[in-house]
Amino acid sequence: MTETNQPIIQIRNVSKRFGKVTAVDNISLDIRAGEFFVLLGPSGCGKTTLLRMIAGFEMPTEGQIIIDGQDMSLVPPNKRPVNMVFQSYAVFPHMNVTDNVGYGLRISGISKAETRDRVAEALELVKLGGFEDRMPDQMSGGQRQRVALARSLVMRPKVLLLDEPLSALDAKLRAQMQFELADLQDKVGITFVTVTHDQDEALSMASRVAVINKGEVAQLAPPSDLYEYPANRFVADFVGSVNIFEGTLTLDEPDKAAVDCPGLGKIYLNHGVTGPHGANVWIALRPEKIYLHVAGKGKAVRAAAQDAPDGHNLARGTIKGMSYLGDVTLYDIQLEGGQIIRVSRPNLSRHDQEDFTWDDKVSMHWRADSPVVLLS
Amino acid sequence: MFNRTAIAPLEYTRKLWMRSWVALTMLFLYAPLVVLMIFSFNDSKRNVMWKGFTLKYYEKALNNDSLVEAMVNSLTIAFLATMISLVIGALAAVMLWRFRFPFKGLVEGTMSLPIIVPEICLGVAFLIFFAKVDWPTDLAWPLNLSAITIAHITFCFPFVAMVVRARLASFNKEEEEAAKDLGATEWQAFRDVLLPHIKPSLVAGALLAFTLSLDDFVITFFTSGPDTITFPVKVYSMVRFSVTPEVNAASTILIILTVALTFIALKYQGVKGIAETH
């Protein structure tokens, strides 16, 4: 990727209020040139409003948006060096593919010959060669999206904005488009800013993700950090699935820490957390990081002891729910304290899902670096 | 035939009694028109018995100067009223669809008032209005038609506005934003995206306005003067003496004219396009 550290978009203390509703609440962030930036959040969190402010369709109530060093406060959408791919694609239904893609060039007075060449090039880029004369109603949703992409890319924007680009596609096509979009971004080197509520999409495509919650940035990080080092309970819960237990920090040293969770027992960590002693904290534990064992054979105890000298990272329970997903099986296990913990287990061999069934007594263990301690 | 599905309600093609019912309805609706057209070719002064084929009443009708003048007046009024209604109606529809402003509900309600108010009331209202303001009646053609045209615009444009408004409801605003995003000004976005979208409703609205204006009798009757007779008013005055085949011939011409016009519009716009507006 042609990524540099110079920010192409600077969002400075931007707020947007619709009447009494605050959609975006004092957000500041930088988007670097050439990166694939994703705004991730649940519906109604303000991510689309932020995108529309970058495009110029909404004006910030407060704050400033600077694109490529230029303050955009008084610049209308048709004068901004950004282009947008809309959620509905917004392909012009009365124009064929060529006219759709060439529209922006045509009205900005580019010569016919150049328009023709650039349209052909853009269509090639999105793999729509041969569709020049098609009308939008003769195309599938995926093809219409490519038209919308080509129509924006042909303008050679500094930033391409994509509003929920994959939400209307079926699962197979979505997976394929995720790769294609990332590939395309790599090829054209344009900064992409995408809005999505789908964490898979965000994790697979983004170079950095801003998780938005209630109009604020909950965390801004690369995808793997978001998953492995969530900053708070919202991010841990929103990105991937997670078990969260409340507890008290009882030990906190540079190389080890312990949390006492009433629901789960004593959790041992092989690193410090720099939180105040006795503080109320939360433990986040991903389902795939928990190992499942048949109860009463001592396997879990031995495995747990290998990680932590006192063998704390251990729990027992009864399987109350199971769902077989093919590649993994999810187990809902009732702990001795009554709480439910979710464990996912990869089906490495064909018969793995037969190992456990409803009402089986099981033991679980996890490594000392698996749990994440959250302070908020 | 084992795979025949059960007959659905109102699936008239597969029930004899329903087919007969449809045929009867069609007969009831169109028989008078067909009879009128057939008897325009009847070689008799009275519309009672078939006496043989002739075209002489067409000749007579076309040579009847006052009838032709009334026809020309009607077409002129219909054309002007349609054009002006189209502009006002479309603008009103776009305004009501796009903007929010105080008393919007009131504006919307009063705008469709001419559709609801009984024609006779509108007619009397126009009569009084034009008398009160001393609207000149002795102007040269076609300015002498202005009073009638204004009255026709009043009841035609709400229909245009209604049809266009319905069409606008299905407009995807992101298309307009996309145009602006690609560099279009407000005006260019309107011309290139919104206008093509509402085009079928403009055709449908124009058709409605034209036919409404062309065959309006009541309001026209109250607003027309001795020199501004329209076709329906003229036919009425002719029928007062007797229904001659001449009237039949003139009516047949009018029917063919409107049908042809509708046909051209449908052909040009596609039935689908116009159906979509409703």
Describe this structure in words.
The complex is a heterodimer of chains A (376) and B (278). Chain A has 376 residues and is of the alpha+beta class. Chain A has two domains: 231 residues, P-loop containing nucleotide triphosphate hydrolases (Rossmann fold, 3-Layer(aba) Sandwich), CATH 3.40.50.300; 128 residues, RNA polymerase II/Efflux pump adaptor protein, barrel-sandwich hybrid domain (OB fold (Dihydrolipoamide Acetyltransferase, E2P), Beta Barrel), CATH 2.40.50. Chain A contains nine helices and 20 strands. In chain A, the strands form four sheets. A six-stranded mixed sheet of chain A has the order 6-7-8-3-9-10, with helices on both faces. In chain A, strands 13-12-11-14-20 form a five-stranded antiparallel sheet. In chain A, strands 15-19-16-17-18 form a five-stranded antiparallel sheet. The longest helix of chain A has 18 residues. The relative contact order of chain A is 0.11. With 278 residues, chain B is mainly alpha-helical. Chain B has two domains: 28 residues; 219 residues, MetI-like fold. Chain B is 71% helix and 0% strand. Chain B contains 13 helices and no strands. The mean pLDDT of chain B is 87. At the A-B interface, strand 6, helix 2 and helix 4 of A face helix 8 and helix 9 of B.
List keywords for this structure.
heterodimer; A: 376 residues; alpha+beta; Rossmann fold; OB fold (Dihydrolipoamide Acetyltransferase, E2P); 2 domains; six-stranded mixed sheet; five-stranded antiparallel sheet; 9 helices; B: 278 residues; mainly alpha; MetI-like fold
Would you kindly provide a brief summary of this structure?
Chain A is of the alpha+beta class and 376 residues long. Chain A is built from 9 helices and 20 strands. Chain B has 2 domains: 12-39; 57-275, MetI-like (MetI-like fold), CATH 1.10.3720.
